[in-house]
Design goal:
This is CMP dCMP zinc-binding. With 361 residues, the chain is an alpha/beta fold. The chain contains 13 helices and seven strands. Helix 8 packs across helix 13.
């Protein structure tokens, strides 16, 4: 019989597993399996859906897999159910969050019926929150559940995970900022050209080129993500991963193939590179440290100026910190945002690292 001190100690160990899962970018849920007679932990795990590239690999599955190594003779088949359940009866599960419907079913099947958990799982819980599988059904015995153990700590970890946000939402927000800044820069460009301020107009055109390029990359990336999500068949038990993980491991794998990248790590590196660049907000634009197609920009500047009576002045004066590249080496500038078309998936597209417009312009 486990004492109250034992219960709190084992749940604290599960909390530790959840915290480590959070640090790995996984949903912050952890568990331990305890030998009730020896009062010792025999298996421990945190969620590992990303690591395993398997959106169903919740911490309960990982811990049960470890526990299976202790089954006598390794017999875990259906014909050995009675002996398996007898073996499992000596163990108890401590998990920081109520087992989901999938995991509750797995606990029934293997006969791990003593369950201690922290907070409720109001969206996917299989032990009373959504379905009451813990009551038992068919030939399966009920689960003996005790809830609310160190629930506040479990909730705090989950809140820490969910508050980190979805990078696609972050990109959408950033995209909106870019569009707003692009509109402002377009107004400034026309005004500067109208007033004869060619140097300032040229700088604004450089900013427009960079903004358009970033918007094109983001639109292509987001389109591919949404296309893959819509084309991916997902069981209901997997929805939590796709709704809440930063980018689910399976989704990353599909995106990497779509973008002609070798592996998931490559896609993660692309995304991290984007995030690193997004932190350097003032480097490219506030300091004018841009690499753009100057020939095309000069053409656009002349078109703007042709309709106004601007005195002919040299446009070759160097603008501080602005780098130019030959036309043949330049990346083509995207069309204005108003003429964007849906990105094509006919050819793989590798998103380049983003440079970011400073919202404080």
């Amino acid at each position: 019989m486990l004492s109250e001190e034992d219960v709190n100690r084992f749940m604290a160990a599960a909390i530790t597993e959840a915290r480590e899962a959070l640090e790995r970018g996984e949903v912050a849920v952890g568990c331990v399996i305890v030998d009730k007679e020896q009062c010792s932990i025999v298996a421990r795990a945190g969620n590992s859906t990303n690591q395993k590239h398997n959106s169903t690999w919740h911490c309960e599955f990982s811990a049960i897999e470890t526990l299976f190594t202790l089954v006598p003779d390794g017999k875990v088949g259906a014909n050995d159910r009675d002996s398996l359940h007898a073996f499992m009866s000596r163990y108890a599960l401590f998990v920081t969050c109520e087992p989901c419907i999938m995991c509750a079913t797995a606990l029934h099947i293997v006969g791990l019926t003593d369950v201690y958990y922290g907070c409720h799982n109001e969206k996917f819980g299989g032990c009373g929150s959504v379905l009451s599988l813990h009551n038992g059904y068919g030939d399966f015995p009920p689960l003996h559940c005790r809830e609310g153990i160190q629930a506040d700590e479990a909730i705090q970890l989950l809140q820490a995970f969910y508050s980190s946000g979805n990078p696609n939402d972050e990109l959408e927000e950033y995209r909106s900022i870019l569009i707003t800044r692009l509109e402002e820069v377009e107004i400034s460009t026309k005004e500067d050209a109208r007033c004869g301020n060619r140097e300032q107009a040229l700088l604004c055109l450089r900013k427009k080129a960079l903004l358009r390029d970033q918007l094109s990359q983001i639109d292509t990336y987001l389109f591919q993500v949404l296309r893959i999500i819509s084309d991916t068949e997902m069981a209901q038990v997997n929805l939590e991963v796709y709704k809440h993980l930063k980018i689910g491991a399976e989704l990353l794998s599909n995106i990497s193939k779509c973008m002609n990248l070798d592996d998931v790590e490559s896609m993660q590196a692309v995304w991290q590179s984007c995030r690193d660049q997004m932190n350097d907000v003032t480097l490219a634009l506030d300091q004018g440290n841009m690499i753009v197609d100057d020939n095309a920009i000069m053409q656009e500047l002349e078109l703007l100026c042709n309709d106004s009576s601007i005195p002919a002045v040299s446009v070759t004066k160097e603008i501080s910190n602005v780098q130019t590249i030959p036309l043949q080496d330049a990346t083509p500038i995207s069309q204005p945002i108003t003429s964007y078309s849906t990105p094509s998936l006919d050819e793989p597209h590798v998103m380049k690292p983003l440079l970011v417009a400073d919202p404080s312009w």
